[in-house]
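Researcher: Structure for this, please.
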Amino acid sequence: MAVQRLLLYLAATAMVVQLAMAANHTVGGPSGGWDTSTDLQTWVASQKFALGDNLIFQYTPNHDVLEVTKSDYDNCQTSNPIQTYNDGNTVIPLTSQGKRYFICGTLGHCSQGMQIEVDTLATATPPANSPSTPSPESPPGSPSSPGVPGTSTPPSGSVSPPPPPPSSASRNSFQTCLTLGFGLVMMVLLAL
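Model: Predicted structure, token format:
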């Protein structure tokens, strides 16, 4: 009986931890979406994707989402998708490590930038310039983001581009809170 209780406790704890770590990434968010006017390459570069996260594509009926191979992604080829979605609110769980490729199947949209390459990591790493770890000031002319080619501090007097939008990953969703609460109640009941 004690072994079963311990196993149930460990399973509940693992479920709660996994759900607490998962994030929902609204593609193109928070101020854009899955459309031709959003800079999807900048958005995807600002994200960190981990196992258990979800990609959320929100789009109008004139768009769809195709998961394709690397070759089809590079060539905006829509004729042989791995998977096709067209419900307007597609949630894709990231269940395995590695790269996945998504394009819009509407004629011309992929070549207009409606394509993303998602690299799912085993665990998420915090962004380089997160608020909890401010980056030190770089001297003029030196790279402002070490390891990122082509970035440097602008000369004084020039206007620097605005920072990328904050992550659209929602780690405090209602579903996660509800699951955490349920998991805590189960752990308390098991402890009795």
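Researcher: Any notable elements?
Model: The two ends are 13 Å apart (CA to CA). The chain is about 25% helix and 20% strand.
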